[in-house]
């Protein structure tokens, strides 16, 4: 990969994304995620061994896991894995967080802006009659969206940008192109200190990148 001498906070080492399965997960989707992360960010992703989710993240009233507690757990994991710049918790269990007045709201994924950990669940991407191709496209979009947050991106007002706020709606995820708009793309390039790969839009999109 070409490292250009651009201004901005260039990372010291070649950044690496680590994929950390938590409890049950869809193995075939993890391979797709690996490719999707590389296509969008030009980052290598490696798989860590699957581990059960931490008990303290379990939320008994709804029988699911609190996403922010999973992020705390993953932050601790990353501290012990010097080779990982960012870590993606990946699971098929339901995850939730507090959203506005809703104490426990089921979500697709969570990532803090500029954080080191994100977590993604495929549970809510399984709508009725979803095809394997659509499920894969949704999973890659959600992982890349959350990684976008970790790379410092906020939600984006540009319609169909990868960083658009899906607001928990699968229709918005499906309508997104799966690629970053010019503004978001420029911000990530500044953060990584190098150009991103040529854009590859999601299968179902009619538009084409440059
Ligand atoms: Zn978001
Ligand atoms: Zn954008």
End-to-end distance, in Å?
20 Å
Task: Describe the main β-sheet briefly.
Answer: 5 strands, mixed
Looking at the overall shape, the CATH architecture is 3-Layer(aba) Sandwich
Count of β-strands:
9
Q: Identify the CATH homologous superfamily.
A: Collagenase (Catalytic Domain)
Please report the number of helical segments: 5
What is the total number of structural domains?
A: 1
Class of secondary structure makeup? alpha/beta
- Spans where pLDDT lies below 50 across 5 or more residues: 1-8, 204-210
Bound molecules: zinc ion
The CATH topology turns out to be Collagenase (Catalytic Domain)
Structural notes for this entry:
- The protein has 210 residues and is α/β, with parallel strands linked by helices.
- It has a single domain (16-192), classed as 3-Layer(aba) Sandwich (Collagenase (Catalytic Domain)), CATH 3.40.390.
- The chain has helices spanning 27-41, 67-80, 132-150, 170-175, 182-192; strands at residues 16-21, 44-47, 58-59, 64-66, 86-91, 95-99, 102-107, 109-111, 117-121.
- The strands form 2 sheets. It has a 5-stranded mixed β-sheet with strand order 2-1-5-9-8, with helices on both faces. A 4-stranded mixed β-sheet has the order 3-4-6-7.
- Strand 6 (95-99) and strand 7 (102-107) form a beta hairpin.
- Helix 1 packs across helix 3.
- The radius of gyration is 16 Å and the shape is globular.
- The relative contact order is 0.17.
- It binds zinc ion (2 copies).
- One zinc ion (ZN) binds at residues 145, 149, 155, 165.
């Amino acid at each position: 990969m070409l490292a250009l001498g651009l201004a901005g906070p260039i990372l010291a080492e070649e950044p690496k994304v680590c994929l950390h399965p938590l409890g049950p997960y869809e193995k075939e989707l993890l391979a797709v995620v690996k490719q999707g992360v590389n296509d969008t960010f030009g980052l290598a992703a490696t798989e860590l061994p699957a581990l059960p989710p931490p008990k303290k993240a379990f939320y008994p009233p709804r029988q699911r896991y609190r996403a922010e507690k999973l992020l705390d757990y993953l932050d601790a994991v990353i501290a012990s894995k010097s080779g990982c710049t960012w870590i993606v918790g990946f699971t098929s269990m339901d995850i939730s967080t507090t959203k506005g007045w809703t104490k426990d709201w089921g979500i697709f994924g969570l990532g803090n802006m500029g954080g080191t950990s994100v977590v993604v669940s495929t549970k809510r991407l399984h709508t009725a009659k979803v095809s394997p191709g659509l499920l894969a496209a949704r999973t890659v979009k959600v992982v890349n969206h959350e990684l976008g947050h970790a790379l410092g991106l906020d939600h984006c007002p540009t319609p169909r940008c990868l960083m658009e706020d899906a607001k928990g709606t699968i229709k918005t995820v499906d309508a997104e192109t799966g690629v970053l708009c010019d503004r978001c793309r420029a911000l990530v390039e500044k953060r990584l200190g190098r150009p991103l790969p040529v854009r590859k839009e999601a299968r179902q999109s009619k538009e084409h990148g440059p």
